[in-house]
Design goal:
133 residues, Aminopeptidase, 6 strands, globular
Length: 133
């Protein structure tokens, strides 16, 4: 497995985001258009893509991604985190988050936030995760 720091123009990132958006269109149902307005990738300059080496191919295969963007002077927001369904539960999201936290520290940020919708809880609203770096 390899983690690559890149930007939102990375073709593998774009491909994974298309898959994420298709998934969210199903899970968000009627609220998809509302949430989707906050998910433009052209404003994301710090992107992480995770690759899995495929032994039958010379080209690594992208299996996960996420990005961060400036929220305020001390804080970055984690955006567009996604892991391919067949790779979920294998610790890839943890590796993505660790890489973003390390990168945020290098850029002298003090906190990360992640805002997400609570799925299948019967509650509306959002969950805000805040981490000190």
């Amino acid at each position: 497995m390899k983690i690559r720091r890149t930007n939102s123009e990375n073709k593998d990132f774009v491909r994974l985001i298309i898959a994420l958006d298709a998934y969210l269109k199903i899970t968000d149902e009627d609220e998809h258009d509302f949430y989707n307005q906050f998910n433009n990738i052209d404003v994301l300059s710090e992107v992480v893509v995770v690759y899995e080496d495929i032994k039958t191919s010379s080209k690594p295969f992208a299996i996960g991604c996420a990005a961060m963007k400036k929220f305020d002077q001390k804080t970055v927001e984690i955006k567009r985190i996604y892991v391919s369904p067949e790779k979920r539960g294998t610790g890839i999201a943890q590796k993505i988050m660790q890489e973003l936290e390390d990168w945020a520290r290098e850029l002298n940020y003090e906190k990360c936030i992640l805002e997400t919708v609570l799925e299948k809880t019967g509650r509306s609203g959002t969950f805000l995760l805040q981490m000190q770096l």
